[in-house]
Specification:
alpha/beta, Rossmann fold, 2 domains, 9-stranded mixed sheet, 6-stranded parallel sheet, 19 helices
Amino acid sequence: MRNVLSVTSECVPLIKTGGLADVAGALPAGLAATGWQARTLLPAYPGLLEKAEAKQQVFTFKDLMGGKARVMVGSVDGLDVLLLDAPHLYDRPGGPYGNPTDFPDNPVRFAALSYAAAQIARQGLSDGWKPQVLHAHDWQAGLAPTYLNLGGPHDVATVVTVHNIAFQGLAPAAMLGVLGLPVSSFTSEALEYWGQISTLKAGLVDADAITTVSPTYAAELMRPEFGMGLEGLIAHRAGDLSGILNGIDMDIWNPATDPEIASYSVTSLKGKAKNRKALMAEFGLSKIDGPLGIIVSRLTAQKGMDLIAATAEQFIAEGGGLAILGSGDPAIEDQMRLLARNHPGKVGLRIGYDEALSHRMFGGGDMVLVPSRFEPCGLTQLYGLRYGTVPIVAATGGLADSVINANTMANASNASTGFQFHPIDALAFGHCLRNAALMFRDKAAWSRLQKRGMKQSLGWEASSTAYAALYERLTK
Protein backbone atom coordinates (compact mmCIF):
# COMPACT_ATOMS: atom_id res chain seq x y z
CA MET A 1 0.00 0.00 0.00
CA ARG A 2 1.38 3.38 -1.05
CA ASN A 3 0.40 6.68 0.51
CA VAL A 4 -1.11 9.92 -0.76
CA LEU A 5 -1.68 13.07 1.30
CA SER A 6 -4.87 14.78 0.11
CA VAL A 7 -5.04 18.44 1.16
CA THR A 8 -8.37 20.27 1.18
CA SER A 9 -10.28 22.99 2.97
CA GLU A 10 -13.46 20.92 3.29
CA CYS A 11 -14.41 17.27 3.24
CA VAL A 12 -17.60 15.23 3.67
CA PRO A 13 -18.74 14.13 6.23
CA LEU A 14 -16.92 16.69 8.40
CA ILE A 15 -17.49 20.05 6.67
CA LYS A 16 -19.13 21.02 3.39
CA THR A 17 -19.95 24.18 1.47
CA GLY A 18 -19.87 22.72 -2.05
CA GLY A 19 -18.83 19.94 -4.40
CA LEU A 20 -15.16 20.06 -3.35
CA ALA A 21 -16.16 18.47 -0.04
CA ASP A 22 -17.99 15.62 -1.80
CA VAL A 23 -14.98 14.88 -3.98
CA ALA A 24 -12.47 15.05 -1.13
CA GLY A 25 -14.63 12.75 0.97
CA ALA A 26 -15.32 10.15 -1.70
CA LEU A 27 -11.94 9.84 -3.48
CA PRO A 28 -10.01 8.07 -0.67
CA ALA A 29 -12.34 5.06 -0.63
CA GLY A 30 -12.00 4.70 -4.39
CA LEU A 31 -8.21 4.96 -4.18
CA ALA A 32 -8.03 2.24 -1.52
CA ALA A 33 -9.27 -0.29 -4.07
CA THR A 34 -6.30 0.61 -6.30
CA GLY A 35 -3.62 0.13 -3.64
CA TRP A 36 -3.28 3.75 -2.47
CA GLN A 37 -4.00 4.78 1.09
CA ALA A 38 -5.12 8.40 1.38
CA ARG A 39 -5.02 10.55 4.47
CA THR A 40 -6.92 13.81 4.16
CA LEU A 41 -5.47 16.94 5.76
CA LEU A 42 -7.87 19.78 6.54
CA PRO A 43 -8.19 22.49 9.20
CA ALA A 44 -9.58 21.58 12.62
CA TYR A 45 -12.59 23.86 12.45
CA PRO A 46 -14.68 23.96 15.65
CA GLY A 47 -16.06 20.55 16.59
CA LEU A 48 -14.10 18.52 14.04
CA LEU A 49 -11.63 17.01 16.51
CA GLU A 50 -14.57 15.54 18.41
CA LYS A 51 -16.39 14.38 15.26
CA ALA A 52 -13.29 12.53 14.02
CA GLU A 53 -12.30 11.33 17.52
CA ALA A 54 -8.86 12.76 16.75
CA LYS A 55 -6.86 12.18 19.93
CA GLN A 56 -3.42 11.16 18.66
CA GLN A 57 -0.89 13.92 17.94
CA VAL A 58 1.42 13.15 15.01
CA PHE A 59 3.09 16.48 14.16
CA THR A 60 3.71 19.81 15.89
CA PHE A 61 4.63 23.36 14.95
CA LYS A 62 6.13 25.81 17.44
CA ASP A 63 4.99 28.70 15.27
CA LEU A 64 2.67 28.20 12.31
CA MET A 65 1.76 31.56 10.86
CA GLY A 66 1.50 33.24 14.25
CA GLY A 67 0.79 30.52 16.79
CA LYS A 68 1.36 26.99 17.98
CA ALA A 69 -0.24 24.16 16.01
CA ARG A 70 -0.44 20.41 15.95
CA VAL A 71 -1.71 17.71 13.60
CA MET A 72 -4.13 15.19 15.05
CA VAL A 73 -5.05 11.90 13.40
CA GLY A 74 -8.58 10.53 13.46
CA SER A 75 -11.25 8.87 11.35
CA VAL A 76 -14.92 9.24 10.56
CA ASP A 77 -17.09 6.89 8.49
CA GLY A 78 -13.98 5.04 7.32
CA LEU A 79 -12.18 8.22 6.21
CA ASP A 80 -8.68 8.71 7.63
CA VAL A 81 -8.19 12.39 8.45
CA LEU A 82 -5.38 14.63 9.66
CA LEU A 83 -6.73 17.72 11.39
CA LEU A 84 -4.54 20.82 11.60
CA ASP A 85 -5.33 22.12 15.07
CA ALA A 86 -4.33 25.80 15.03
CA PRO A 87 -6.85 27.70 17.20
CA HIS A 88 -5.45 31.11 16.25
CA LEU A 89 -6.42 30.37 12.63
CA TYR A 90 -9.45 28.09 12.69
CA ASP A 91 -11.22 28.31 16.06
CA ARG A 92 -13.87 30.86 15.13
CA PRO A 93 -17.62 30.82 14.45
CA GLY A 94 -19.10 30.69 10.98
CA GLY A 95 -18.21 28.73 7.87
CA PRO A 96 -14.73 27.67 6.86
CA TYR A 97 -14.15 30.84 4.84
CA GLY A 98 -16.09 33.57 6.63
CA ASN A 99 -18.92 34.76 8.82
CA PRO A 100 -20.72 35.91 6.73
CA THR A 101 -18.11 37.56 4.46
CA ASP A 102 -14.60 36.19 3.87
CA PHE A 103 -12.24 36.35 6.82
CA PRO A 104 -9.56 38.96 6.01
CA ASP A 105 -6.78 36.57 7.06
CA ASN A 106 -7.86 33.75 4.72
CA PRO A 107 -4.56 34.00 2.77
CA VAL A 108 -2.70 33.25 5.99
CA ARG A 109 -5.14 30.56 7.16
CA PHE A 110 -4.81 28.50 4.01
CA ALA A 111 -1.13 29.21 3.47
CA ALA A 112 -0.71 27.59 6.89
CA LEU A 113 -2.64 24.53 5.67
CA SER A 114 -0.37 24.34 2.62
CA TYR A 115 2.79 24.79 4.67
CA ALA A 116 1.73 22.05 7.08
CA ALA A 117 1.06 19.74 4.13
CA ALA A 118 4.54 20.41 2.72
CA GLN A 119 6.22 19.63 6.03
CA ILE A 120 4.25 16.43 6.51
CA ALA A 121 5.14 15.37 2.96
CA ARG A 122 8.82 16.09 3.52
CA GLN A 123 9.24 14.66 7.03
CA GLY A 124 6.43 12.17 7.51
CA LEU A 125 4.42 11.74 10.70
CA SER A 126 5.48 10.47 14.09
CA ASP A 127 3.42 7.31 13.60
CA GLY A 128 5.65 6.35 10.65
CA TRP A 129 3.28 7.38 7.87
CA LYS A 130 4.82 9.28 4.92
CA PRO A 131 3.26 10.01 1.54
CA GLN A 132 4.72 9.37 -1.88
CA VAL A 133 2.23 11.84 -3.41
CA LEU A 134 0.94 15.20 -2.19
CA HIS A 135 -2.42 15.96 -3.82
CA ALA A 136 -3.56 19.58 -3.34
CA HIS A 137 -7.12 20.68 -4.07
CA ASP A 138 -7.89 24.19 -5.33
CA TRP A 139 -6.41 27.52 -4.21
CA GLN A 140 -6.66 26.70 -0.51
CA ALA A 141 -3.92 24.09 -0.93
CA GLY A 142 -2.23 25.70 -3.93
CA LEU A 143 0.90 26.74 -2.05
CA ALA A 144 1.67 23.20 -0.84
CA PRO A 145 3.84 22.25 -3.87
CA THR A 146 5.51 25.67 -3.69
CA TYR A 147 6.48 25.32 -0.03
CA LEU A 148 7.66 21.77 -0.67
CA ASN A 149 9.91 22.91 -3.53
CA LEU A 150 11.23 25.90 -1.58
CA GLY A 151 12.52 23.52 1.09
CA GLY A 152 14.98 21.91 -1.31
CA PRO A 153 15.18 18.50 -3.01
CA HIS A 154 12.50 15.96 -2.05
CA ASP A 155 11.11 12.62 -3.14
CA VAL A 156 7.38 13.44 -3.13
CA ALA A 157 5.35 13.81 -6.34
CA THR A 158 2.84 16.68 -6.38
CA VAL A 159 -0.56 17.07 -8.01
CA VAL A 160 -2.86 20.09 -8.04
CA THR A 161 -6.53 19.63 -8.91
CA VAL A 162 -8.49 22.64 -10.15
CA HIS A 163 -12.11 22.30 -9.10
CA ASN A 164 -13.04 25.83 -10.18
CA ILE A 165 -10.50 28.22 -11.67
CA ALA A 166 -12.72 31.21 -10.91
CA PHE A 167 -11.40 31.09 -7.34
CA GLN A 168 -7.66 31.78 -7.33
CA GLY A 169 -6.70 32.61 -3.75
CA LEU A 170 -5.56 36.20 -4.32
CA ALA A 171 -3.54 38.12 -1.75
CA PRO A 172 -1.71 41.48 -1.78
CA ALA A 173 1.93 41.42 -2.82
CA ALA A 174 2.79 42.97 0.56
CA MET A 175 1.95 39.60 2.16
CA LEU A 176 4.92 37.78 0.61
CA GLY A 177 6.91 38.00 3.83
CA VAL A 178 3.96 37.07 6.05
CA LEU A 179 3.39 33.96 3.93
CA GLY A 180 7.07 33.03 3.94
CA LEU A 181 7.45 33.45 0.18
CA PRO A 182 10.63 34.87 -1.39
CA VAL A 183 10.46 38.10 -3.35
CA SER A 184 12.03 36.19 -6.25
CA SER A 185 8.80 34.19 -6.61
CA PHE A 186 6.79 37.32 -7.38
CA THR A 187 7.11 37.14 -11.17
CA SER A 188 4.74 36.43 -14.03
CA GLU A 189 6.48 33.08 -14.48
CA ALA A 190 5.68 32.12 -10.89
CA LEU A 191 2.91 33.23 -8.50
CA GLU A 192 2.35 36.86 -9.55
CA TYR A 193 -1.11 37.51 -11.03
CA TRP A 194 -1.94 41.08 -12.10
CA GLY A 195 0.07 42.58 -9.25
CA GLN A 196 -1.20 40.14 -6.63
CA ILE A 197 -0.21 36.76 -5.23
CA SER A 198 -2.27 33.88 -6.66
CA THR A 199 -1.98 30.74 -4.59
CA LEU A 200 -3.70 28.71 -7.29
CA LYS A 201 -1.23 29.94 -9.91
CA ALA A 202 1.63 28.98 -7.58
CA GLY A 203 0.35 25.41 -7.53
CA LEU A 204 -0.15 25.33 -11.30
CA VAL A 205 3.47 26.41 -11.77
CA ASP A 206 5.09 24.19 -9.14
CA ALA A 207 3.12 20.93 -9.18
CA ASP A 208 4.40 17.95 -11.14
CA ALA A 209 0.96 17.37 -12.60
CA ILE A 210 -2.30 19.30 -12.95
CA THR A 211 -5.73 17.73 -13.05
CA THR A 212 -9.18 19.12 -13.34
CA VAL A 213 -12.54 17.52 -12.89
CA SER A 214 -13.62 16.73 -16.44
CA PRO A 215 -11.94 16.29 -19.83
CA THR A 216 -13.94 19.07 -21.47
CA TYR A 217 -13.11 21.54 -18.68
CA ALA A 218 -9.42 20.69 -19.09
CA ALA A 219 -9.64 21.70 -22.74
CA GLU A 220 -11.74 24.78 -21.94
CA LEU A 221 -9.17 26.06 -19.43
CA MET A 222 -6.71 26.68 -22.25
CA ARG A 223 -9.10 29.21 -23.80
CA PRO A 224 -9.46 32.85 -22.64
CA GLU A 225 -13.23 32.63 -22.14
CA PHE A 226 -12.71 30.00 -19.43
CA GLY A 227 -9.12 30.29 -18.21
CA MET A 228 -9.61 33.43 -16.08
CA GLY A 229 -6.24 34.83 -17.12
CA LEU A 230 -4.37 31.56 -16.53
CA GLU A 231 -5.10 30.01 -19.92
CA GLY A 232 -1.57 30.68 -21.21
CA LEU A 233 0.03 28.94 -18.26
CA ILE A 234 -2.30 25.97 -18.54
CA ALA A 235 -1.72 25.69 -22.29
CA HIS A 236 2.03 25.80 -21.61
CA ARG A 237 1.59 22.86 -19.22
CA ALA A 238 -0.84 20.95 -21.43
CA GLY A 239 1.44 17.90 -21.38
CA ASP A 240 1.04 17.71 -17.60
CA LEU A 241 -2.73 18.32 -17.64
CA SER A 242 -5.42 15.64 -17.21
CA GLY A 243 -9.20 15.89 -17.06
CA ILE A 244 -10.66 13.24 -14.77
CA LEU A 245 -14.44 13.24 -14.40
CA ASN A 246 -15.72 13.18 -10.83
CA GLY A 247 -17.92 10.42 -9.51
CA ILE A 248 -20.57 10.33 -6.78
CA ASP A 249 -21.11 8.19 -3.69
CA MET A 250 -23.42 5.51 -5.05
CA ASP A 251 -24.53 4.44 -1.57
CA ILE A 252 -25.54 7.88 -0.30
CA TRP A 253 -27.20 8.70 -3.61
CA ASN A 254 -29.28 5.58 -4.20
CA PRO A 255 -33.04 5.84 -4.86
CA ALA A 256 -33.50 2.20 -3.83
CA THR A 257 -32.27 2.84 -0.27
CA ASP A 258 -32.53 6.62 0.26
CA PRO A 259 -34.35 7.14 3.60
CA GLU A 260 -35.72 10.50 2.45
CA ILE A 261 -37.92 9.10 -0.33
CA ALA A 262 -40.22 6.29 -1.33
CA SER A 263 -37.78 3.79 -2.82
CA TYR A 264 -37.63 2.89 -6.50
CA SER A 265 -35.08 1.41 -8.89
CA VAL A 266 -34.19 1.15 -12.55
CA THR A 267 -36.37 -1.93 -12.85
CA SER A 268 -39.40 -0.18 -11.35
CA LEU A 269 -40.02 3.55 -11.36
CA LYS A 270 -43.35 3.28 -9.52
CA GLY A 271 -42.06 5.10 -6.46
CA LYS A 272 -41.18 8.14 -8.59
CA ALA A 273 -44.83 9.19 -8.91
CA LYS A 274 -45.36 8.97 -5.14
CA ASN A 275 -42.27 11.10 -4.54
CA ARG A 276 -43.44 13.64 -7.13
CA LYS A 277 -46.77 14.03 -5.36
CA ALA A 278 -45.06 14.46 -1.98
CA LEU A 279 -42.59 17.01 -3.39
CA MET A 280 -45.36 19.05 -4.96
CA ALA A 281 -47.17 19.15 -1.63
CA GLU A 282 -43.98 20.19 0.18
CA PHE A 283 -43.49 23.11 -2.24
CA GLY A 284 -47.18 24.01 -2.44
CA LEU A 285 -47.48 23.07 -6.13
CA SER A 286 -50.63 21.91 -7.93
CA LYS A 287 -52.07 21.18 -11.34
CA ILE A 288 -48.76 20.65 -13.12
CA ASP A 289 -49.59 18.60 -16.20
CA GLY A 290 -46.13 18.78 -17.76
CA PRO A 291 -42.71 18.05 -16.28
CA LEU A 292 -41.75 19.11 -12.77
CA GLY A 293 -38.32 20.71 -13.06
CA ILE A 294 -36.08 20.98 -10.03
CA ILE A 295 -33.21 23.39 -9.43
CA VAL A 296 -30.67 22.67 -6.68
CA SER A 297 -28.00 25.28 -7.16
CA ARG A 298 -26.22 28.40 -6.10
CA LEU A 299 -28.35 31.22 -7.47
CA THR A 300 -25.68 32.97 -9.52
CA ALA A 301 -25.07 34.03 -13.11
CA GLN A 302 -22.28 31.45 -13.40
CA LYS A 303 -24.91 28.78 -12.75
CA GLY A 304 -27.12 30.33 -15.44
CA MET A 305 -29.89 31.15 -13.01
CA ASP A 306 -30.83 34.31 -14.91
CA LEU A 307 -31.71 31.96 -17.80
CA ILE A 308 -34.24 30.25 -15.53
CA ALA A 309 -35.97 33.58 -14.98
CA ALA A 310 -35.89 34.31 -18.72
CA THR A 311 -37.47 30.99 -19.77
CA ALA A 312 -39.77 30.14 -16.86
CA GLU A 313 -42.88 31.84 -18.26
CA GLN A 314 -42.67 29.78 -21.44
CA PHE A 315 -41.98 26.55 -19.53
CA ILE A 316 -44.96 27.15 -17.23
CA ALA A 317 -47.22 27.97 -20.18
CA GLU A 318 -46.35 24.56 -21.64
CA GLY A 319 -47.53 22.83 -18.47
CA GLY A 320 -44.28 22.71 -16.52
CA GLY A 321 -43.59 23.59 -12.91
CA LEU A 322 -40.50 24.45 -10.87
CA ALA A 323 -39.20 23.56 -7.41
CA ILE A 324 -36.17 25.70 -6.55
CA LEU A 325 -33.66 25.28 -3.72
CA GLY A 326 -30.65 27.57 -3.42
CA SER A 327 -29.18 30.90 -2.42
CA GLY A 328 -26.66 33.34 -3.85
CA ASP A 329 -26.81 36.62 -5.71
CA PRO A 330 -29.47 38.82 -4.02
CA ALA A 331 -30.71 40.08 -7.40
CA ILE A 332 -31.24 36.54 -8.68
CA GLU A 333 -32.83 35.51 -5.39
CA ASP A 334 -35.29 38.35 -5.96
CA GLN A 335 -35.97 37.10 -9.50
CA MET A 336 -36.84 33.69 -8.09
CA ARG A 337 -39.09 35.23 -5.42
CA LEU A 338 -40.91 37.17 -8.13
CA LEU A 339 -41.40 33.99 -10.16
CA ALA A 340 -42.86 32.20 -7.16
CA ARG A 341 -45.09 35.15 -6.30
CA ASN A 342 -46.37 35.50 -9.89
CA HIS A 343 -46.96 31.77 -10.34
CA PRO A 344 -48.45 30.35 -7.15
CA GLY A 345 -48.90 26.61 -7.41
CA LYS A 346 -46.50 26.46 -10.34
CA VAL A 347 -43.23 27.68 -8.82
CA GLY A 348 -42.05 26.78 -5.32
CA LEU A 349 -38.96 28.33 -3.72
CA ARG A 350 -36.71 27.62 -0.74
CA ILE A 351 -33.87 30.09 -0.18
CA GLY A 352 -30.92 28.34 1.50
CA TYR A 353 -29.66 24.79 1.38
CA ASP A 354 -31.07 21.60 2.88
CA GLU A 355 -29.31 18.31 2.11
CA ALA A 356 -32.29 16.14 3.01
CA LEU A 357 -34.63 18.28 0.91
CA SER A 358 -32.26 17.98 -2.05
CA HIS A 359 -32.65 14.19 -1.89
CA ARG A 360 -36.44 14.53 -1.87
CA MET A 361 -36.22 16.86 -4.86
CA PHE A 362 -34.18 14.40 -6.90
CA GLY A 363 -36.57 11.66 -5.85
CA GLY A 364 -39.66 13.60 -6.96
CA GLY A 365 -38.51 15.75 -9.86
CA ASP A 366 -38.97 14.82 -13.50
CA MET A 367 -35.98 16.83 -14.71
CA VAL A 368 -33.12 18.77 -13.17
CA LEU A 369 -32.16 22.06 -14.82
CA VAL A 370 -28.42 22.90 -14.95
CA PRO A 371 -27.92 25.84 -17.37
CA SER A 372 -24.42 26.76 -16.12
CA ARG A 373 -22.31 29.14 -18.21
CA PHE A 374 -19.30 27.11 -17.14
CA GLU A 375 -19.19 23.99 -15.00
CA PRO A 376 -15.90 22.25 -14.22
CA CYS A 377 -17.66 18.96 -13.51
CA GLY A 378 -20.94 19.36 -11.70
CA LEU A 379 -22.49 16.74 -9.46
CA THR A 380 -26.11 17.83 -9.78
CA GLN A 381 -26.55 16.24 -13.19
CA LEU A 382 -25.00 12.99 -11.87
CA TYR A 383 -27.49 12.89 -9.00
CA GLY A 384 -30.22 13.49 -11.58
CA LEU A 385 -29.07 10.54 -13.70
CA ARG A 386 -28.90 8.31 -10.63
CA TYR A 387 -32.47 9.20 -9.61
CA GLY A 388 -34.07 9.12 -13.06
CA THR A 389 -34.47 12.90 -12.93
CA VAL A 390 -33.52 13.76 -16.48
CA PRO A 391 -30.72 16.40 -16.72
CA ILE A 392 -31.24 19.46 -18.91
CA VAL A 393 -27.73 20.90 -19.17
CA ALA A 394 -25.60 23.45 -20.94
CA ALA A 395 -23.00 21.88 -23.24
CA THR A 396 -19.96 22.87 -21.19
CA GLY A 397 -17.37 21.25 -18.93
CA GLY A 398 -18.39 18.12 -17.09
CA LEU A 399 -22.02 18.60 -18.09
CA ALA A 400 -21.06 17.91 -21.71
CA ASP A 401 -18.98 14.90 -20.65
CA SER A 402 -21.62 13.20 -18.50
CA VAL A 403 -24.96 13.73 -20.29
CA ILE A 404 -25.64 12.25 -23.73
CA ASN A 405 -27.91 14.59 -25.66
CA ALA A 406 -31.28 13.24 -26.76
CA ASN A 407 -30.81 14.05 -30.42
CA THR A 408 -32.24 11.96 -33.24
CA MET A 409 -29.29 9.58 -33.59
CA ALA A 410 -28.75 9.12 -29.85
CA ASN A 411 -32.42 8.32 -29.33
CA ALA A 412 -32.46 5.92 -32.27
CA SER A 413 -29.46 4.04 -30.88
CA ASN A 414 -30.82 4.03 -27.30
CA ALA A 415 -27.85 6.05 -26.05
CA SER A 416 -29.36 9.35 -24.87
CA THR A 417 -29.56 10.16 -21.15
CA GLY A 418 -30.66 13.82 -21.09
CA PHE A 419 -30.68 17.09 -23.02
CA GLN A 420 -27.88 19.53 -23.87
CA PHE A 421 -28.15 23.04 -25.27
CA HIS A 422 -25.69 25.43 -26.92
CA PRO A 423 -25.03 28.32 -27.21
CA ILE A 424 -25.64 29.09 -23.57
CA ASP A 425 -28.41 31.67 -23.84
CA ALA A 426 -32.13 31.94 -23.17
CA LEU A 427 -33.10 31.17 -26.76
CA ALA A 428 -31.24 27.85 -26.87
CA PHE A 429 -32.27 26.94 -23.32
CA GLY A 430 -35.93 27.64 -24.02
CA HIS A 431 -35.81 25.53 -27.18
CA CYS A 432 -34.19 22.68 -25.24
CA LEU A 433 -36.90 22.87 -22.57
CA ARG A 434 -39.59 22.66 -25.26
CA ASN A 435 -37.98 19.53 -26.72
CA ALA A 436 -37.76 17.96 -23.27
CA ALA A 437 -41.38 18.82 -22.48
CA LEU A 438 -42.43 17.28 -25.80
CA MET A 439 -40.66 14.00 -25.02
CA PHE A 440 -42.15 14.03 -21.51
CA ARG A 441 -45.60 13.61 -23.09
CA ASP A 442 -44.41 10.31 -24.59
CA LYS A 443 -44.35 8.31 -21.37
CA ALA A 444 -42.67 5.26 -22.90
CA ALA A 445 -39.87 7.33 -24.45
CA TRP A 446 -39.40 9.31 -21.22
CA SER A 447 -39.23 6.12 -19.14
CA ARG A 448 -36.55 4.72 -21.45
CA LEU A 449 -34.57 7.93 -21.09
CA GLN A 450 -34.83 7.78 -17.29
CA LYS A 451 -33.74 4.16 -17.11
CA ARG A 452 -30.75 4.68 -19.40
CA GLY A 453 -29.57 7.45 -17.12
CA MET A 454 -30.01 5.30 -14.02
CA LYS A 455 -27.88 2.55 -15.57
CA GLN A 456 -24.87 4.82 -16.11
CA SER A 457 -21.61 4.14 -14.25
CA LEU A 458 -21.47 7.18 -11.96
CA GLY A 459 -19.30 5.98 -9.06
CA TRP A 460 -15.65 6.58 -8.33
CA GLU A 461 -14.22 3.39 -9.85
CA ALA A 462 -13.10 4.88 -13.18
CA SER A 463 -11.98 8.18 -11.64
CA SER A 464 -9.99 6.50 -8.87
CA THR A 465 -8.29 4.24 -11.38
CA ALA A 466 -7.29 7.29 -13.43
CA TYR A 467 -5.88 9.07 -10.36
CA ALA A 468 -4.01 5.93 -9.32
CA ALA A 469 -2.51 5.62 -12.81
CA LEU A 470 -1.38 9.24 -12.60
CA TYR A 471 0.24 8.64 -9.21
CA GLU A 472 2.01 5.59 -10.63
CA ARG A 473 3.48 7.58 -13.51
CA LEU A 474 4.67 10.34 -11.22
CA THR A 475 6.34 8.04 -8.70
CA LYS A 476 8.15 5.73 -11.09
